Amino acid sequence: MDEECVRPGDPTDETFLTKMSNNIGGHLHFTSHETADKSTRKKLGRTEFKLKHYAGDVTYFIKGFLEKNNDLLFRDLKKVMTQTTNSVTLDMFTDKELENKKRPDSAATSFKQSLSQLMTILMSKEPSYVRCIKPNDSKRSSIFSRSIVEHQVKYLGLMENLRVRRAGFAYRRPHKFFLQRYKSLCPDTWPQYSGTDKEGVQVLVDHLSYQPDDYKIGNTKIFIRLPKVLFATEELFAARKHELATSIQAKFKGHYQRKSYLRMKVAVIMIAKHWRRVLAKRLLEKRKWATLVVRKYIKGFILRNEPECEENKGFIHFTRYNYLIRLRDSLPKTVLDKSWPQAPRLVQEANDYMRELVMSNMVRKYCNTISPERKSQMELKVLAESIFKGQKSSYSARVKDLFSLYTPADHIVGLQGISGLNQLHTQVFSKLNKKLDPPVEIVYACPAVKFDRNGYKNRDRLFMLADNAIYLVAEKKEIKDIILLDVLKGVSVSPFSDNILVLHLNQTDNGVKGDVILQTPNVYETCTMIAMQCKDSQLINVISEGVIKHVLKTGKEGMIEFSTGPVAKTVKGKNGNLCVISSA
Q1: Mean pLDDT score of the chain, rounded to an integer?
Q2: Is residue 500 within 8 Å of 519, Cβ to Cβ?
Q3: How far apart are the C-alpha atoms of 217 and 275, rounded to whole Å?
Q4: Is the pTM of this model over 0.70?
């Protein structure tokens, strides 16, 4: 508290409470709002703390602690008070206080010094205590409040004093009785001890780890001082009785079960003897039948290549039947499953016909179930596989997903209010369609971010692919860029999991301002749709290195550097290149 009062700055009662929580918050007798559990916080305010005294818990309100601790009576005021004519005030403020140039002691320091002086006086004396019990809070005679008296007796420690006064050898029993009762607690005295009773009692108490002050052994009796020692011994004896009862029960059950086992053993031997005879006769008949069958099939196997006759007819029929059963259980489940069980030479011709028939039937069923949309999706997936399989790291995770061929009306951020493809054409392509015949027809659209060629500043765009051009539309429904597919030389993407693609344009054409850098979450769909619209899958190039070069507006070359890291991000590097970091 003194440190907080003299600390520079603006110390408050709250900072003092925080400092106490940090320094002594782990003490068992200190509790504040910060260190308390949930249930205690409901009762304890943020400006309160609780101390656990010997007489119970006391809650303190922190407001005013620092103000009361400071001695605000400065030297000038003390000098005025020493000049008073009042004798009482003059005794309180002496001239000696003015001679001390140190900072006045705080209330906490004064209390600590007074307590230290009191303890010094008490330790030099021989104390004698007289316990006074207050029977009630109303200060009236003949009224005895049981709860108030019990509270005082508890916290004045009177019960402990009574227990000390009553301490002595409360338990005393002859050696024979003590040994006979508790001998089961020690392996050396159970079940019978061969020595004298006194020696047996000594062995027993040593095994129970009695302390020397807890007991005394006389000539004929044992004396135990503390009841808790006897109670602990009784608890061990009570637990031991359960063990003894369990042991007796186990012995009796074992004896009873052994007698039952011997009776059953004789009966089982008699039953087994007759049953083995029955099984032996059955086995003999079965072996005779098996011998005939094996001989028949061996002869049929020898004559398997001969025309069907009485000798090989059974073997040929079994071979056909077994083949059909195996074929039934291992037929291919899908068109892509080309597995087929190997057939014996006897049914090879039928196997070929059956395989062709099954595959034709599966292909016919599969083709009948494919919708036009599904067929279009499969064509796109086949084209995407030829471009990206084994080239781009994140493609394997996208194989199972169908392409998202979004309609522009449902998807693009910044084009709110446009509903339907016709309205999009009306608002975005109204002026352009007047000059074109036929008008623009959008086949694919997705959101994209365009990076400027100089400075790589990103701008939100709507990527729209038409039958002969690519349109980049801004948020205000204004066409910012038109890229004719005839000008497009190629599209470059990295082998990592980023969504960057670079449209390389023919720089010899008028109006071309350099290559276009885009970032779209649908990079696979976008590249595949461009390749399909241009009818050239070689147009898409997945680079093997980590760098893509592109042409700037000035005709110079820029570079995009690709790498992997813990967090995916796209930033402009210190060397002026665009750095694209993909998540590993």
Answers
A1: 83
A2: yes
A3: 71
A4: no
